[in-house]
Amino acid sequence: MSAAHWRRAMNSAAASALARGAGVPARVPASRSRPPVARPVEVDPYADSSAPRWLKFLWRHLGPRHVLLPLLALVFPLVATPFFTFQVAAQALVLGLVALSLTFLAGYGGMVSLAQLTVAGIAGYSVAIFGVSGTAVSLGWPWWVCVPLALAIATVCATLIGWLSVRTEGIYTIMITLAIGVAFYYLVLQNYSVFNGFQGFQKVYPPTVLGIDWRSPLPFYYLCLACSLAGYLVVKWLVRAPFGIALQGIRDNPRRMNALGYNVVAHRVAAYAVAGLIAAVGGVLLVWYNGLISPGSVSTTWLINILVIAVLGGMRHPIGSFVGAVVFVLLQTFAIDLIDRERFNLVIGGVFLAIVLFSPDGLLGLWAWLRSRFGPEQAVTATTSNSRRRT
Amino acid sequence: MKKAKRIWMGSMLGMAATAVATTGPAWAQGAPVKIGLLATLEGPFAAGGADGMRGAELALAQRGGTVAGRKVEIIKASSNANPDVAVNAVRKLVEQDKVDIMVGPLSGSEGIAVKDYSKTQPNITFINGGSGAQATTLVNPSPNFFRFNTEGAQWMVGLGKAAWDKGYRRVMVIAEDYAFPYSQVQGFMAEYCRLGGKVPLKAWVPLGGKDYASTIARIPKDVDALLVVLGGADAVNFLNQYEAAGGDKPMMGGSITVSQDVLNYRGKRRDSLVGTISAGPLADAYDGAAWKQFVDAYRKAYPVSAGGYPSPSLFALVYYTNMKAALDALDAVKGDLSGGQAKYRDALQKLELRMPTGTVRLDGNRQAIGTTFVTEVVKDSGGNLTTRVLRKVENVEQLLGMPRDQFKIGTRDEPSCP
Question: pLDDT tens digits for A301-337?
């Protein structure tokens, strides 16, 4: 959803309110009901059919890729090896989920926070501390207590981080969130009574629920897929909801939104809270994926890696974070097979540089460029159906 | 038209992904034995990791790359001393590259994490690389994880007595804040405290820390010496800053402090390193014939011009040890890894490994019983710093001669004698 979208939405809402007010003047004072809700009205080509609303919605918004991609994701573990299912696909989904929270904050809220992995780390550490692990420091509470608790703690922390950093802009936001991330790293590194210092927590495994061992590759993959899909849909829905529209307005012009009566700080802090919850889910999955958490898991390397994933995929669409995560994980895993074992980081860095250099919008930008280059009919229809389909 | 094209592209992508996913695993159990080799080629132990790889490769090269007629193929992987990275790398070697035997990792908490992972792969044999955490083989040992190198506490046996003999009565400890230095400090203090020595202060500094100013400021005036258990780049950083602060206390080193990394140090305090005592599983100047042979082989394979050290480092030795054990046992069973590698593991357990430094056996937890050297830094005729053997301690066990029920794994506070 771009700035142009938002403006159009606001314009059409204003126009429809005007039309209603002029057309039926008698009804408004008579019913004494609330004023008409400002909502974008679009011409619905399927309006005359008798299908239920949700079906019409799906029909309008679903393309083949919306069916093919989830289908592929569902079938993938059935044909792939457990290694690919677990280490490549599940890890990519988890990292993608954490990066998604950054894409939401940065792409739609204009706030680049490096502390998203820290929030994920807080959730992961909470699971390890309250739940069961191989370390004596852990309290050993059951998962249905410690997982919601971890999510709550991480969301509160994310809100606090947001509350601290929303008063800053641009590079200062990056600086302050980086500082928070580094501070948390040193806290867990040097605190032994709660965080168990350098050792961290070993053997933090997902529980066995409903007779399924969620640690084994297949169930864990589907767990990650479900959480990622939920996170993705929440972001997609949120950016079209009034809150998301307002957030994008704030991203584009905070002063004007302030003048319109929107509470800029509250919207931004709320965005941090939502992103925090998404990152927290990712953090719980991440600690379960690794089976351990140690200060190395929340070090600056990983803070930056999340940013790399988000930028690599492209921040113009929530799917970008997952695309970026897949490429990132594949590179991390297999770059060492391509080149001299002691120089493989060169490949990783080189690919990242090339992508960012040739496509500032990440892989999604590259994809859009390819489509406009090799799909001539796209250009003709671009102003109508295509622009609406893209969010 | 547009939709058809989209579907077509989507399905092509799908097929490509499926193809990538399915071609990876399938090649059958062919002739070569695959050995996975993991060391830290990134992070604070990058230099040590590279030398560890050299040691492991040397062990294979000495057998001409084949064991009992089967070709041995090494597949390398890298980590950065973080346990999660190490487990990811090992999982790739085991599940994707399908190695038969796994050698690695290098650092302490990596070792514990890989040992935990090894329990989920009962058909693969895991042999340690360089990691020296005590808990790896003492707490919940894994039936398929073997360690042919002695660990951190064992490496320091003999140093306590040497310090006492040098007249050090009070010693301050400066060590990195994780499992391996804990065990090193324990190995030293177990003996030193028994003799009546005092350790009034232990400073635990973060791994990879750059700034030691606050630690240096805390050094009490009344200690006789410092026990510095820092590795690689950290030790050189500390030396630089201690020199700049005008420090003059004599030092004792941990096993990875006085390694070739530090002996190649070029600072002004270089000469004051002469006389530093330390203990470890190797001594550059040990004059055993087997050791001299090993050093010659190392120098020939990795001359200084090609990036090798003047003398093999500790990591080269421990990786060499573990890789040699893997190959010797493979030779003993004539390359037979069938039956979930049961025979192979039996051979490993019974192995009497002839090492350049002495014979190594395994105890009931599959942990090495081996030799420790107490050494002193001296300057050789070429101006290189090297070490001289003060004493050779044989048959050092993991429990340091204590009964199992009295033995506690070293931590920040254990043992203590202020």
Answer: 889 889 888 888 888 888 889 988 998 888 888 877 7
- Which domains does chain B show, CATH number per domain? 33-149+289-370 (3.40.50.2300), 154-286+372-396 (3.40.50.2300)
Return d(Cα B398, Cα B368) in angstroms, integer: 8
Residue A42 lies in a domain: no
The answer to the question of residue A313 being in a domain is yes
CATH number, domain of A341, equals: 1.10.3470
For residue A296, list chain B residues with Cβ-Cβ distance below 8 A. 80-85
- A266 lies in which domain range? 84-377
Query: Is there a domain that residue A16 lies in?
Result: no
Confidence of residue A291 (pLDDT cuts 50, 70, 90): confident
Q: In terms of Cα–Cα distance, which of A131, A124, A133, A177 is closest to A151?
A: A124
The answer to pTM > 0.80 is: no
**Is residue A136 assigned to a domain?**
yes
The strand pair at B145-146 and B170-176 is best described as unpaired
How far apart are alpha carbons B84 and B383 in whole angstroms? 42
Across the interface, of A192, A296, A378, the residue whose CB is closest to B84 is: A296
Q: Give the range with max mean pLDDT: A9-23, A98-112, A195-209.
A: A98-112
Are residues B25 and A83, on separate chains, in Cβ contact within 8 Å?
A: yes
B-chain residue closest to A186, CA distance: B206
| A-B C-beta contacts closer than 8 Å | 125
Asked if the Cβ–Cβ distance from A72 to B91 is below 8 Å, we say no
User: How far is Cα B313 from Cα B293, in angstroms, rounded to an integer?
Assistant: 15
How many structural domains are present in chain A?
Answer: 1
- Write out chain B residues lying below 8 Å of A297, CB-based: 82, 84
Q: How far apart are CA A216 and CA B29, in angstroms?
A: 25
Q: Quick check: B412 and B169 in contact, CB under 8 A?
A: no
pLDDT at A227: 92
Contact A336 B77 (CB under 8 A): yes
CA–CA dist A234, A44 (Å, integer) = 24
Return d(Cα B326, Cα B101) in angstroms, integer. Answer: 8
CA-to-CA distance for A321 and A99, rounded, in angstroms?
A: 5
Cα nearest neighbour of A386 on chain B: B2
Give the 3-state DSSP-derived string for chain A, with helices as H, strands as E and coil as C. CCHHHHHHHHHHHHHHHHHHHHHCCCHHHHHCCCCCCCCCCCCCCCCCCCCCHHHHHHHHHCCHHHHHHHHHHHHHHHHCCHHHHHHHHHHHHHHHHHHHHHHHHHHHHCCCCCCHHHHHHHHHHHHHHHCCCCCCCCCCCCHHHHHHHHHHHHHHHHHHHHHHHCCCCCHHHHHHHHHHHHHHHHHHHHCCCCCCHHHCECCCCCCEECCEECCCHHHHHHHHHHHHHHHHHHHHHHCCCHHHHHHHHHHHCHHHHHHCCCCHHHHHHHHHHHHHHHHHHHHHHHHHHHCCECHHHHCHHHHHHHHHHHHHHCCCCCHHHHHHHHHHHHHHHHHHHHCCCCCHHHHHHHHHHHHHHHCCCHHHHHHHHHHHHHCHHHHHHHHHHHHHHCC
In DSSP terms, A213 is beta-bridged to: A208
Task: Say yes or no to pLDDT of A34 above 60.
Answer: no
Alpha-carbon distance of A95 to A224, in angstroms, equals 10
